[in-house]
Amino acid sequence: MKIIEENKLKEIIQIINDYHNDNKKIKKFFNNLDSLTLSSLQDVSYEKDIEFFDEVSFILSVISSIISHPHLSNRGEDIIIRAELAGSIPSDAFNQVVKEPILWKEQNAEMVPENVHYYQYTDELKIYENVFIGMLITTLSLELARYQEFYISLIPSLDGGMEVLDALSTNIALDKINRLQRKLRYIMNTHFYKEVSKVKMSFKNIQPTNILLKDRLYNFCFKFYRKFIKYEDRELLLEDFRTYYYHLILKVFKTHGFNLDESKSQGFNNLSFNFKDYIVNVYTEEYKPGIFLNIKYQDLNVVHHLLLNLERNNKDYSLTLYEDSTTTSVISLWNLNTSENLEIPIFKNYAKEEEIVKYFVLDKFKEVTGNLDMYEKYCPVCRARSVDIINNQCTCDECGSIYTFKENNKIWFIRVRR
Fold first, then answer.
1. DSSP 364-415
2. Residue 404 φ/ψ, nearest 5 degrees
3. In what order do the strands lie in the sheet containing 393-396?
4. Which residues face 295 on adjacent strands?
């Protein structure tokens, strides 16, 4: 999640906190959910991305100026060179030569110095501030690559679903990214970058040195780093993100006829509902990440675990799986994935947050009409004849899908392995 999205999330969490203060009773809290307006984090994203690209363009120009005239550290060392190469030498260096006969030779019946001590000064490019600039260049290169991957995924496809941005907006963003990457390639081919990038340094604790604070060009880069590339408390951020999606789930419940059971609810973070012929609990646990959805039907009890990812892409997400969870899904600001296949998202084109949450909730109550005799033998998902039935719960050994039969030939799909 980008810092601009994080700032917007903080505003939304404050709105949620104010809503809780005004609706302290659970029943009132749920009944008034329609009045809780949660802004879309996605809506600010494109506009802020364009602003960010313009900032990057300016910073790259500043970095080019720094590379032309960087701060250097003058370092020296005492070396011995041939006398004719030294030119003039200071008196202390000549006194050293006088003390070392090995440096002299006879010439025209006289002893003259053949080699002399010489203090050689060299300009050192790899100072702290220049290494910081090199790290900033590397970080921008990686960040723009992620932006490019993301916006390419937003290009509308023929078999896609809802589109977040139109093709024109996506094209504008990609055009800006491509121009910035050309500038970066030029910078990364300079001697400056090739030298300073050899030094490894952490971005977490950049010290505000005199050069970073007082040199105008270096200070532009330092302020940019503090504004866009700073590290936040990720645990707190993840907790806020969970709060955001937890309330979006509750708003889906309110819209689609879930009835709050106040007597079975155990607080705002553990609410119980009746929905059709199901008993539903939505809750969070202090030491377990994500949101849990517990669904009971007669003797069946299933738990769906929703993990949250702060990044835009779920495919590299590290899963935390629990044995008591029937399914595990990963939700980000832009899409939803199942734990079985993080490479392929549910939505071909990125969807709005409300649509993602609505899909996650209602998919857990998917019912279709089907022939009991047939689907006791053949899996309705993959057609394999490898179905085990235990206590009216059918599990396909081939694809792992789980379903059960209800009245009127209804099949409730508990887990669908696509």
1. TT-EEE--HHHHTTS-TTT--S-EEEETTEEEETTT--EEEE-GGGEEEEEE
2. -145, 160
3. 367-369, 410-415, 402-405, 393-396, 387-390
4. 280, 302
Q: 157 φ, ψ to 5°? A: -115, 160
Amino acid type, 316: D
Q: What are phi and psi of 86, to 5 degrees?
A: -85, -25
Greater pLDDT, 40 or 343? 40
Distances (CA, A) of 409 to 34, 84, 187, 295, 376: 36, 103, 67, 20, 12
The answer to whether 250 and 281 have CB atoms below 8 angstroms apart is no
- Token digits for 294? 């517990």
Separation between Cα atoms, residue 391 and residue 395, nearest integer Å: 11
Contacts of 331 (CB under 8 A, 6+ apart): 245, 306, 307, 308, 309, 356, 357, 360
In which residue are the tokens 């700032």 written? 7
Backbone angles phi, psi at 380, to 5 degrees: -75, -5
Tokens in use for 398? 């081939």
End-to-end CA distance of the chain: 28
107-145: per-residue pLDDT in tens? 777 787 777 766 555 457 888 899 999 999 999 999 899
- Per residue in 331-357, pLDDT (tens digit) is 988 889 888 888 788 887 777 899 999
